[in-house]
Amino acid sequence: MERENAWKKYDSKALEELESLSARYRKFLDDGKTERECANIAVEMAKNNGYISLDDAVKAGTKLEPGTKLYASPMGKTIMLFIIGKQPLENGMNIVGAHIDSPRIDLKQNPLYEDSDIAYLDTHYYGGVKKYQWVTLPLAIHGVVVKKDGTVINVAVGENDNDPVFCISDLLIHLSQEQMQKKAAEVIGGEDLNLIIGGKPLKDTEDKEAVKANVLSLLKDKYGFEEEDFLSAELEIVPAGRARELGFDRSMILGYGHDDRVCAFAEMEAIFKISEIPERTCCCLFADKEEIGSVGATGMQAHYFENAFAELMNLTGDYCDLKLRRGLANSKMLSCDVSAGFDPNFASAFEKKNSAFLGRGVCFNKYTGSRGKSGSNDANAEYMAEVRRIMDDAGVSFQTAELGRVDLGGGGTIAYICALYCMNVIDSGVAVLSMHAPWEIISKADLYEAMRGYHAFLLNA
């Protein structure tokens, strides 16, 4: 069943809303290139929209009434937004959940070295990447350095016009006869992703590694940290530059981190649009570490969401373990993650009638997983029918898809983890071209329809 392109239905008012949303989204991408930055932006946006800290509410023993808006950001890398509904939490929440980590390159803990009068940072890539895509690009460094006394130093270099940028070199074509015979996965090795950060030696020094010494001098003057402080740093290498409108018609956005910040942003915009007191409690959730299996204290496999649910129940005066379990099982969720957009340049990788197309609206994946649905959630038919009804009643353009040909590969999301609570979950997101590349492509129309769809879902009684 072929879906119509969503652009065809927009009147002037809808186009104005779409373009305004897209402009805000591009700024969100530019300002939030790491999970920490995204979480910080979300907290500030929540405060500006009348949300109060869940931690503060817990400490004060605040009685939560319907309509109360709260936020929580465990470890500064995740975010949860709640609007308390009229129904008891035992009846469950309506949840939209995304992740805010993206494929990138991280620094090793002992990264700095000099070789042949060039200073480098040694790296370890994060998530599923084609390593050869990351060479010869202008790159930026974002993150934090934490000193032993607890001082946190924020780092962001390579984004402003007067900032330097960084780069990973590649072998010149004239000497690449052997390199060009390698498989794509082997053209650039993981240990070859070494970031060039300097080439000027420190004057008046007897240090044999004078270029490295000069870099350390600059880092101490600019940021106040020593080489040993790299041991407690989280510094991420990301593409330098702004998200841009793509195409003569400006219908698309080229940017870093659409996976999965496009869904995260659509979720935020959706929950911030809610002005009335909802029937069911609404939750907007951002998780970390999805790209490496949702592990660790900030990944979806951790218990921060369940803990927050328990705190909310306690502050409404209605907590017990059984009611908590019922509330989790009665919740309904959209696991909001991007889907592979059909690309005519690589048509053989897709099964066309079950693919997502740019511009045809928010996408639903009944199942993801690999090959024989391994690792998927596989939503039930009853829940799929309910979601269809919600979208149709709200006039939201939507499509359904699989992630490529059955035997070719696949992928996973946080859906199967949340489904462990026995709640209904289905994957929903935005179609992306060049997924996991340094620069990815989405349609503005799909962002707009995702926001509208998530808003309708949150308010569903």
Characterise the protein shown here.
This protein is 28% helix and 23% strand. It is an alpha/beta fold. The strands form five sheets. It has a nine-stranded mixed β-sheet with strand order 1-2-3-13-4-14-20-16-18, with helices on both faces. α1 crosses α6 (258-272), α1 packs across α11 (444-458) and α6 packs across α11.
Task: Please supply descriptive tags for the structure shown above.
alpha/beta; Aminopeptidase; Aminopeptidase i, Domain 2; 2 domains; 9-stranded mixed β-sheet; 22 strands; globular
The multimeric state of the shown protein is single chain
Beta-strand level of the residues, as a percent range? 15-25%
Q: Going by CATH, what is the homologous superfamily of the largest domain?
A: Zn peptidases
Largest sheet: 9 strands, mixed
Number of domains: 2
**Strand order of the biggest β-sheet:** 1-2-3-13-4-14-20-16-18
Number of strands: 22
CATH fold topology of the largest domain: Aminopeptidase
Structural class: alpha/beta
Compile the SSE list and pairings.
Layout: H1 12-31, H2 35-48, E1 52-53, H3 54-60, E2 69-72, E3 79-83, E4 93-99, E5 104-115, E6 118-126, E7 139-146, E8 152-157, H4 184-187, E9 195-198, H5 210-223, E10 233-239, E11 244-246, E12 252-255, H6 258-272, E13 281-287, H7 304-315, H8 321-329, E14 332-336, E15 339-340, E16 362-365, E17 369-370, H9 381-393, E18 398-400, E19 410-411, H10 415-418, E20 424-429, E21 431-432, E22 440-443, H11 444-458
Helix pairs in contact: 1-6, 1-11, 6-11
